[in-house]
Amino acid sequence: MIPQFEGLLDSQKELMYDAIPLITIYIAGADGKIDLEETEWAEKVTKIRSYAYHESLQEFYANISETYSDKLHQYITSLPNDVEERTVAINEKLAGLNSILTGLDANFAARYYKSLVSFAEHVAKASGGFLGFGSVSRAESKLLGLDMITPLELEEGEEEEEDNENENENNEEA
User: Fold this and answer.
1) Is 76 exposed, middle or buried (0-12, 13-18, 19+ CB in 10 A)?
2) Range of the domain at 81
C-alpha cells in the first residue's frame, strides 16, 4: 500500500485512484466525443508513469494501470451522456479531492495534484494536430487547469518531477 494513503478511508483512496479515469472522460469528452486515441494514450501514460515518474507516485500509477480500463468503461456507462451534465458531475466528484489532499503529506499532495494537471494535458493533446498529437480543442483547453481542485505547490527545496512520458514513448517505439 502507498504509505501516504494510510489512514485514508476506502472511499477517499478510491477517489484518489478514480481521478485518473474521471479526468480522461472530463477532458476527452469535453468536445462531445471520447476518442479512442485519447483513452488509449491515457492508459499508456498510466503505465509509463508506473516506472518513469516521481518515485512517490510510481506505485500509485502502477495500481491505476491495473484497473484503468475497467474503471474508465464503468464511468463512461454510468455518467450522463450530455456533455454539460457529465462535466458538472465530474467537477463535483473531483472537488472531493480537496478535503483529502489537505490531510496528506504536503509534498506528496502537491506532486499528486501536478500529476493530475499534467495527465489532463496529455489526454487533451492525444488527438488532432500533427499525426494525431498536439492539438487541444477549445472545449478541452477550458478544462485543463482542473479548477475544481485547489492548486498545491511543493515546499521550498523540493524537486519538481519531470514529465517524461513523451520521451519514454519515443524510446519504446524505437
Assistant:
1) middle
2) 8-173
Does 130 map to a domain?
yes
Q: What is the pLDDT of residues 79-89, one digit of tens each?
A: 999 999 999 99
Within a domain: 2: no
**Prediction pTM value:** 0.85
Catalogue the long-range contacts made by 116-122 (C-beta closer than 8 Å, 24 or more residues apart).
Answer: 116/19, 116/20, 116/23, 116/146, 116/149, 117/144, 117/145, 117/146, 118/163, 119/20, 119/23, 119/42, 119/45, 120/23, 120/26, 120/27, 120/144, 120/146, 122/41, 122/42, 122/45, 122/165
Give the chain's domain count.
Answer: 1
Q: Residue 19 burial (CB < 10 Å; 0-12/13-18/19+)?
A: buried
Query: Using one digit for the tens of pLDDT, what is the confidence trace for 29-77?
Result: 998 888 888 899 999 999 999 999 999 999 999 999 999 999 999 999 9
Question: What 3-state class would DSSP assign to 136?
Answer: coil
Which residue has 468503461 as its cell numbers? 73
